[in-house]
Each structure stands twice: as C-alpha cells, then as structure tokens.
Amino acid sequence: MAGSGAGAGSDTAVTSASTGGLGRVLIELRDQIDSFRFVLDVPGADEARAAQLEIRNQLDDYVLPRLRSSGVPMLVVLGGSTGAGKSTLVNTLVGSRVSATGVLRPTTSSPILVCHPDHAQWFLEGPLLPGMAKVPGPAPDAVVGDQLVIMQSETLPAGLALLDSPDFDSVFEDHYEFATKLMAAADLWLCVTTAARYADAQVWQMLRRAKEHGATIGTVLSRVPQGAGSEVVEHFVEMLEEHGVGEAERFTIPETKIEASRLPEECVEDVRDWLIGLAESDERRSDVIRDTFGGVLDSFRTRVPELAKQVEVQVELRTALRSDVEAGYATALAELDEATRNGSLLRGEVLARWQDFAGTGDLVRALHVQRSRSSRKANRRRRTPARVRALKSALRAGLESLILAGADHAAEQVVTRWRDNPAGREVLLGGHGAEANGARAAALEHASPELARRVTRAVSAWQDYVLELVRTDGVTKRSVAKLVSFDEEALSLVLMVGLLAYGTSDVAVEGGTSAVPQRLLKALFGAESLRGMGAKARADLRSRIGMLFDEEAIRFGQAIDAAGIPDETTAVQLYQATYNLEVAR
After folding, report:
1. How many Cα atoms are found within 13 Å in the side-chain-facing hemisphere of 486?
2. Staple 175 to which of 166, 300, 306, 476, CB 3.0 to 4.6 Å?
3. How far, CA to CA in Å, does 220 sit from each of 170, 229, 267, 272, 442?
4. Alpha helix (H) ranges present in 140-214?
5. Residue 319 burial (10 A CB sphere; 0-12, 13-18, 19+)
6. In a structure prediction context, what are the per-residue pLDDT tens digits for the chain, which is 585 residues long?
C-alpha cells in the first residue's frame, strides 16, 4: 500500500511463495482438513476435533491471508488472564483509550484491533480472520458478539497493528475460543500475566499451545510488587525455561497507579521500543513474520499426522462395523446352506405337494415310453399337470420364506451387535433426534420391505435355471434313453426336491418316498451327470441368495456413510497433504 511505511521486504519473505505451488498445496490441505468429521465419540475424539478446528482456522485466519497479502503490518496479539492489564497496556502504547478497562471482569468482550489509518480498510475488508464480523471503531465499552472492532491510531507506525483479545481464562467459553483463535492468527503473540497469576496452569497451557502452533512469543509480567519483585521475576524466567519458551522476549511492569486507563509512560518504554523497533525495520519485521509463518508450517509436520492417527481410529471402528454386517449375513447364508441340505424344507405344504405328486401317479406319468417322434412332440405340447404346478409353487414359497427369514435374522443380528458397540449405537442414532433414531434402528433390524419382491424374482429365476439345466445338461443314460423320454419341468422339480429336501445327490436315503428323488434321478442321468447338475444348481442358488443378502447389507453401509465416519482414504490423504507441503516448501 502506498504510504504504508511497510517495505516490500516484510512480505516478500512469505508472499513470494504464493507464486509457486505452496498456495495451492495449502488450500488443498485446508480443504482436506475440512472434508471429514470425527463422528464417533471415542477416547481422544474431543481433542482431535479441537485440533482439527485449530488447524483449519489457522489456515483460514492466518496462513492463507499472510501468504496472499503484501504490505500488511505485523499483527501483535495481546493475550492473557483476567485482570492482567492487556487493555491498559494497549491504551498506553497507543496513547489513548481505545480498549475498555475497569473493575468488572472480563472487560474486553469483543477483540479490539488498533492500526494505522493506512491499513484500517484492509483489516475491515481483507482476508484476515474471515469468520469474524468486522466493525469500525470507536466501539462501546461492552461490545458483545463475534466481531472484531477496528480502531485507527496515528500513533502506531504503519508496520504495526495491536489486537487486544478477550481473556483466555474468562468464565465465558466463547471468550476462550476467541482468545485461542486470535492467538493462532498472530505474527507475534504477547502473553500478558501478573505477578499473582503467572503460575496458573492455563497461562502455561496457552504458552505451550502458542509454541506448538508456531507463534513468535513475547511475555509481559505485570503488577510486579516492589521489593520482592526480583524473586517473582526469577521464578517466572525459570518457569519459561522449564516449559520450553525461554527464548521469548521478556518484559516486566511494576505495580503502579493507573490513570485514564493508562500506565505511566516509563513503565511501557521497553515494550514500546521493542515493538516499534520491529515494526519500523523491514528486516526485523520480515524476520518475525517469516519465523512465525515458517513455525506454523513446521507445526503441521506433527499436527496433521497426529490428526491422521485419530482418523485411523475412526476408520478402524468403521471397519469393525462393516465386519459386523459381513459376519451377520455370512452366518445367515451358512444357515441357509444347511437348511437347504438337511431336509427341513420338506415340511408342511411342500411335503404335502410332494407326496401328492409322487404318490398319485403323476411322477410315473412324467416318464413316457418312446413310440415315435410325433409322440414326443405331443408330450412337449402337453399341459403341465396341476400337481406339478402346485409342487413348483409350494417349493418356491417355501424357499422364499426360508430366505426372508434368513435376511430378517441377519439384520437382527447386525443391529444387536451394533447396539452392543458404542460406535454402532452412534450410527443407529445418527444424530437426527430421538424419533428418527428409533425409526432408523427399527427399519434396519428387519429385512427391507422390497426384499420379498426381489426374492420372488430370484427364486423363480433359479427354478427356470434348474429347468434349463435339465434340458441342456440332463443327458439321459443311453440304456434308458432308448426306452423313455421325460417331462423336463417335472424332472426339474424332482431335482429341486432332491437338492432342497434330501441334500446332495450323494446322500443315501432309504425307504419310502424319501428315496424317490435320488433313485429316479440316478437311474435317468447317472451319478456323474446328476452330481454335476446338482453342484451347478446349488451354486447358482447360493449365488442368487448371496446377491440378495449383499443388497440388504448395503442398507447398513449407507447408514455408516450417512453417519459421516471417515474412510481409509481420509488418513492417507492427510499424510499425503503433509508430504506435499514439505515438497512445496
């Protein structure tokens, strides 16, 4: 900006990178961070959500704006505990009352940013802190809301902007969120605490967070008492070293009288000289901006992979839920295999229709002594007997009921497993309210309403397939073929009964009608041909049932997807984004 006094050196250290691939890579990283949610409440999830939000906000609020902007002043954010004197320090540095002070705590409700008039418009309309509303000052003493108040001051050099943030130990949760958000947007974070409060855990938590997030740090220890002050200062310095921030610039302000919301000028002389010295030197200001910007990017080397590890925890749970679905339907398919081998289907209506067919002569009439070709053609044109149609219908209905019962059981088993699993319960709940939650679980624990129609089509198609097998693969033994022809549909039913009611064609069943299918089929086709047809028919039936169950299982996969649990590609993309950032730098 013309007349800004902030030379090109302050931004070329950072913004020159935007002409290459770094800007694109950072946008991709931001989009990737924003593309998923930690849906499942597992240990570490709350911390991961907070870390995800902090990284995304820092990219939006600081990294991308700083990368794209030129000629913008160094932003110094003052953060600290309640009553530490941040607002008083800002007022003193500016030389006028721009931020509210008083005995009521917390005093600063909305953050106050003070800058040279040349930059006021950029802070009001520029990309910095895009999620916050920005209003021009002066503002009332107790502005409330998520907004940034922009004040102008000719006293500040054009290369410097001061931001008085809410107290990070405020009783108001949104004040803490503002404080951490603004800290992450600072080129330089100035931690202000008092001789009485410097040992508080939250002070060191914030200092540690600032360091981990790449900020350049300065500290101000205020209200240092006369006499015993040196001991307090020494202990404060020791604690800075212990917490790994011993390199931070350190300033002290003695306990003194405050007038007109300002400190005596001599109390802030060292702080003012340091800040103005940084702001007015292109090289020093550039160093601070570059160090902070680089420190933030350095922090992503660990912060993003740590986020990816938490994603992997969610992915493992997602995989476990899918395994529950696969296990439920695989068990049901195995149970159906057994049910179609052990004769349990030959009951009730099916048994009655089979006995009626086999014991009244229709089975015998299905075999015809060969007389002439015209006789065989007449036989093909012959209408299917009513008992054949009734047996086919009963077999179809029995098999349909068996499949539907298996699907119901599988769905019930999956829902039961999910209810026993905290992650599964969250998927069943889905976060859409109690009424919808109950409806989702109720819908999933039974077969889908449209399954009956699909099962009817599948079983009918299987019966047609068995009939085609008899026509194409059912080569009659030569010794038998000279004497008899057979009704293909009737024989296909006998093959179905043999498969579904008596197991494989190799099973020896003695006596009564139970031996009829095997004896008749072996007599007609021979053991080898019958074995081949039986294997094909059973494999085809299993495949059709498997496809039906796979379609049913899709509902559970859709519930997992609807819950928004990250999949395995998410963590991979985060690791890749970290690598891409290193390459782009």
Report:
1. 24
2. 166
3. 19, 14, 11, 12, 60
4. 173-184, 201-212
5. middle
6. 333 344 444 454 454 544 458 999 999 999 999 999 999 999 999 999 999 999 999 999 999 999 887 678 999 999 988 788 898 999 999 988 887 654 334 444 678 999 999 999 999 998 888 888 898 887 554 445 568 899 999 999 999 999 998 887 654 556 677 888 889 889 999 999 999 989 999 899 999 988 988 889 999 999 999 877 789 999 999 999 999 999 999 999 999 988 888 999 999 999 999 999 999 999 999 999 999 999 999 999 999 999 999 999 999 999 999 999 999 999 999 999 888 888 778 778 888 888 787 777 666 676 654 444 444 454 454 556 788 888 899 999 999 999 999 999 999 999 999 999 999 998 998 644 444 456 778 889 999 999 999 999 999 999 999 999 888 876 655 555 555 566 788 888 888 888 886 654 443 433 444 445 667 777 777 778 888 888 999 999 999 999 999 999 999 999 999 999 999 999 999 999 999 999 998
User: Cα torsion for 172, 175, 176, 178, to the nearest 10°?
Assistant: 160
Tell me: cis bond preceding 106? Omega within 30 of 0 counts.
yes
- Helix or strand holding residue 367 (H, E): strand 367-369
pTM above 0.90, yes or no: no
Q: Which two tokens stand for residue 485?
A: 């022809």
